[in-house]
Specification:
Blueprint: E1 16-21, E2 27-32, E3 36-41, E4 46-52, E5 58-63, E6 69-74, E7 79-83, E8 89-93
Antiparallel strand pairs: 1-2, 2-3, 3-4, 5-6, 6-7, 7-8
Amino acid sequence: MQASSAEIQQPNTKFIHALALAPNGDKAAVGNLDGIVHLLDMKANSVSASMKNHGMAVRALSFSSSSQNLVSAGEDLHIFVTDCETKQRKHTMVGHTKQITAIACHP
């Protein structure tokens, strides 16, 4: 991935709690204090979607090895798998009893 001098128009947020870069370098995701996940298009240098995935702060993000899915985890004790193209949730994991602070996708 080449560094770009162009800046992505930043979403209106004060605190970024999680950041992930897709393995193919085309996308990035930013998780906020307010539970919103912003999906960034790295080629277009723009925000492609803002999704209210969590009821509390997003603490961890990870892309699948194919870069097609984004996994998010938050203080609301939920984990969501979201399709990056359709922006629809594919899976929801509940039942955690403690805050989720890290997550990783296995190839």
